[in-house]
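Final paragraph of the annual report: two paired records, presented back to back.
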Amino acid sequence: MHRFIADIIVVGSGPAGLCIAADLANCGCSVGIVTRDDQFRWPNTYGTWLDEIAGTVLDGCTVAEWPGTQVALDTDDVRDLGRGYCRIDNVAAIRRLSSVLQLNDVTIHPSGVTSVEHDDVGSTVRLTSGGTARAKLIIDATGIGSFTRHQGPPPSLFQYAVGWRVSGAHPYSADSMRLMDFSSEGVHSATDAPSFLYAMPLEGGVFVEETTLISDDEGDFDELTRRLHARLERDGITGPICGSVETVRIPMDVSLPDFTQRVVAFGAASSMVHPATGYSFGRTLKASGPLAQALADGLAEGRSSAALSAIAYAELWPEDAVLAHQLFQFGARFLTTLDTQQTRSFFEAFFSTPRESWVAYLQGDLPAGELAAVMLAVFGACPAGLRLRMVWSGAEWKTAVSAIRSLTRTRRSA
């Protein structure tokens, strides 16, 4: 009855699932993967900062790299962020991770999950294909809509995007990718809800996406498509669409997982999507190795199943990270109140802070105290109207103040 098929079962085979499975296997853990797909597939386009994949299991798995990254707040206000960016080569990444899994005899179970049950010594996963699989610990890496319990209500803020690859000539520098282009001339009114262009120059063409940074409204993909076509026409990009159209809907305010549960959430299931940018790939990669090592150490010490889940959540969500999450949520909610011109003003203030500050903010790994300092610096650099809007942002402002006060109390007691 208590026979385990592995030390740890990972449910899900997206980037979070395969990365943590590979890192666990490299740390000497026996691992099983439960996935609905009989073959691993990553249908989305993933981009991240070059320095975020350096030294990780996917170092070098890129299809394109750009030494520079640009933000355009308007057609005549283009800023070089001085930081390298890359597009992940999904096929190469899956191939590399699969080789690690094969080398370490990781078992693959092509099935969904109907339920997870726990007892004193481990957990049982009931499979949609019939039968069960047992392990000392279950990791949920199935993304949003997973079987993880969360502390709050379902998400209400989302990032939406529509994109495709265009072949032929384009006006963008081959040495820089366009991270955000908020120019709206010929696309939409400056008083409309903002959206921006995300553009990756590639060999023989460019990948483009029109993106709503964050919204509490249902995404209008038809409007985003119209804006993207208008933007391409304005910029003289006339080449044909290559491949399929990609649509994106990313929940931005997923509440923290219930840290008392036995299932360990990882990746988007663990609220690891940056609530102000929608990024999760780099953060997931950086967190995977330390989490795997912490669990491997716990297994070697003979820790119980309940203790292993506690170890995992302590690694993923220490108190300081929880406070930072509250501050980020305030920032995310505030951004939903801005039109295009106000968004430009906000980012002008944001990028006027020291480079190391906004780099760390975009990475999402600032300690809560430093994050609060950056947010206060941005507040001070914003025009008076935006500062008033922040102050009167209601419950979200109260949440931010509460988090800062909690941080202050924590420091005083240390």
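The closing record of the year follows.
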Amino acid sequence: MNEIHLLLLLHLLGATIWVGGHILLSVIILPQVWKEKSVEKLFAFESRYEWIGMPALAVMLITGVRMAYLYNVRITTWFAFKTPIETVISLKLLCLFSLVLFALSAQCFVLPRLKTNIEKLPLMAFHILSVTCISIVMLVLGSFVRYGGISL
């Protein structure tokens, strides 16, 4: 097994945990929370998932950067959109930045208020569904590497 294959396997394992957890949150947990108008299940899921979800995200970040370098996409060419592989990597990085902004917003503003105010649930639902959709988009973008990337 060569380095890129091992990195890809680790990256896919991280994606499985990250995307799968967010799909579970969106499709199973969020509808229950919405129906019961009780956020305890949401906070319980978050506390149980965070210990595996955040390391999975870190693994994807580390392996993704390393694979980018193995594909000769250096930090100096990120967001250049000159080659199909650079385009995939740049779009995935834009998605990652969006995820970070949603995470900061949720952790700093939405979740603290949601603990005492159920009226913040629609805003939290928007965050959850947005992160889930962005994560799926990242998964789809990653699949294009197999075909040499995408051209805009």
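The first helix runs from residue 3 to 36. This concludes the annual technical report; the extension proposal builds directly on these records.
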